[in-house]
């Protein structure tokens, strides 16, 4: 704080006491000096105090990887509603292939002097992805909360669904139905939530040869499940509902039936999964509770309260529908 006062005072050509009065909203400073101090804060890369940001202080960035996966629009609705109840407006930022990157959005949000950021499904969950823009957020001390598992070194508060428990629920359900040859379709190898699901699978003595890594897409699920079906699995656990829908398509194209020949389980319980053919058995992420918790954490950070950086884990729920059935003898 002392260093900041000294740098701003030197930049503007006023005393540190004058800078302190501006930052604390005290009287006795001319409007021209006040504006000069605030401009110097921006030029030097310091964050303006919340009470001095004007209308822009009521903005919160919500950064999502995509909107095609229905879980992300659903999460955006939860977070946006919770923010509105606190008097804030969410600024939705969605990555596009060949378009605006996550790092570009971070630069934009900093320029807009948002009060905070909520990330869901960002590059923080991939060990091999670029993370420099998160370090920039830390340097600027911008209140930030991450949703779902992140790499270890970032140090932001996290709200996550328990991936270990999710995998155990799905595998346990299939084993209860008599399935012994169970495969998994996971995200990329550096994807932290997928790694956690894989650890649970291996801890339950699953066969590592029956694990496929792919991109989170219908096509990725189809390709990965095609290989698992050829390997003779009778049950497939997927790391997302979109992957599970691709797996169902792969089973059918192999001339088999879901669930009579191969049972399939998804993850998320996205919208309309009870309307698919067959309705999808899946592990539900508690996005309502997670979204509200993320906003509560963010509000505490904005108000400069101490918030633990420990990961807050939420229990998922197995939702049994018609895409799973007893294994054929």
UniProtKB/TrEMBL annotation:
The keyword Amino-acid biosynthesis does not apply. GO terms for molecular function: DNA-binding transcription factor activity; transcription cis-regulatory region binding. Residues 3-57 form the HTH lacI-type domain. It comes from the Bacteria. InterPro entries: HTH_LacI (IPR000843), LacI/GalR-like_sensor (IPR046335), Lambda_DNA-bd_dom_sf (IPR010982), Peripla_BP_I (IPR028082). SMART domains: HTH_LACI. Keywords: DNA-binding, Transcription, Transcription regulation. The keyword Transcription regulation applies. CDD domains: HTH_LacI (cd01392), PBP1_AglR_RafR-like (cd06292). Coiled coil: none annotated. PANTHER family: LACI-RELATED TRANSCRIPTIONAL REPRESSOR (PTHR30146), LACTOSE OPERON REPRESSOR (PTHR30146:SF153). This is LacI family transcriptional regulator. It comes from Kribbella antibiotica.
